Amino acid sequence: EYYWFEHLTKYVRKFIDNCITCKVSKPNSGKVQAELFPIPKVSTPWHTIHMDATGKLSGKNDTKEYVFVTIDSFTKFVLLYHSFHIDSTSCVNALKLGVSLFAAPTRIIADQDRCFASREFKEFCEQHNIHLHLIATGSSRANGQVERVMSTLKGMLTAVEVKEDRSWQDALSDVQLALNCTVNRVTKASPLELMFGKIGRPLNLVTPSETDSNVNLPEVRSQAMQNINDNAAYDKKRFDSSKAKVNKLSIGDYALLENEERNQTKLSPKFRGPFQVVDILEGNRYLLKSLNSNRTYKYAHDRVRRMPSQEIPLELNDSDLDEEENSAETNTGFVNEEGIIVLDELND
């Protein structure tokens, strides 16, 4: 009824870990191998900004409307730009809005949406000596500041629509002012206070007898910087305590990439590949290259799964990539155009 031998658990775990079917079809379970890397802050307003674009907020298919969100990393100052398109031109215009007010920032952090990864947006950044940093695919925590604002923004705009006394488009400027007048939980000061040394209020909360308060701007910024660093250290400790130790890949290793759930059915493979690690980036990220094309991908460690050793395509090398157009022959099958492993039944 029972079967046992010495080191049975270790053997079974190794056997399952080298099963290509399990690697491709099974989702991650247990503690995630991840580590939090807070972005170093500087106490200079508009040095580093985060950008993102909302999904469709309203309108029919032919009249979609979006909002580009820009937030200053230090002061948390928010700029909102209304657009009918989510393309490179609209993205550049959203950035120009901030540049016209505060000049060009030193660094921009954004995700890898087409509008931010477009040639037009990259050229604009290069012309104005702006360092563009695109986060790894699927790692929204790397752009967490703007994601948090996006969540608050959608709730506020929804409240405006439900009230039905005016459209969210008309209320967008008031929403921006309200965000910039609100005291931030981390900095203990409002974005307006840190950016301009002025304590502001939303228009409907201003009283005629109210006078401007004097703000010691250097002191407020110094205290805000200390609060930011303390909070970053606390968040890192809390995040890392619930995660597993990261077993890093090396250059030349083969790996599978996690598929986006929103683009898959419930029974679709959870991972695709294989891909080869061509560079190791800071923050436990990898630059991976497809085996049947020259396309590269940037993924964080928690979105990557190591290939089983016996499934590694040993016969594939760089010279083969230029000659093969439709598929790459391996010692266990081939890789189709989508980068999915197709096992050769003759080898079973």
Word description of this protein:
It contains 10 helices and 13 strands. It is α+β, with helices and mostly antiparallel strands and 348 residues long. The chain has 2 domains: 8-35 and 246-313, Roll (SH3 type barrels); 48-206 and 213-238, 2-Layer Sandwich (Nucleotidyltransferase, domain 5), CATH 3.30.420. The chain has a 5-stranded mixed beta sheet with strand order 3-2-1-4-5, sandwiched between helices. Strands 9-8-7-6-10 form a 5-stranded antiparallel beta sheet. It has a 3-stranded antiparallel beta sheet with strand order 11-12-13, with no helix packed on it. The longest helix is centred in the middle third of the chain and has 25 residues, at 217-241. The model is unreliable at 314-348 (pLDDT under 50).
